[in-house]
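Apologies for my clumsy wording, but can you show me some protein sequence, whichever is easiest, together with the matching structure tokens, please?
=====
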Amino acid sequence: MAFAATFAYRPRACYAGIALEAPIVSASAAGYWKLVSRIFVENMASRRLVASLGFREVGIYERHGRLDGVWRDVAIMERLLSGGTLLDDQSPSG
């Protein structure tokens, strides 16, 4: 079971082209330059799946949220896309 959506990551301008948990092709076509996913650390099947789709693990959020009263850690996965509205010679600011 999974959930995918495209929406603004953060309100700051430097994050304007980052999508969360979005389908890869439609996100790139929509101008996003990065996809971000958070997966429970013990869910190795999902971590391997997104890795096979070009995502890389960039860190762990410890105690990211509570589920059924238990604090849960999540792996942070990202994939850079070739699309996006940011020009190659510009750097994000905000």
Summary: DSSP finds two helices and four strands in the chain. Confidence is low (pLDDT under 50) at residues 87-91. The longest helix spans residues 44-52. Strands lie at 18-20, 34-40, 56-67, 70-80.
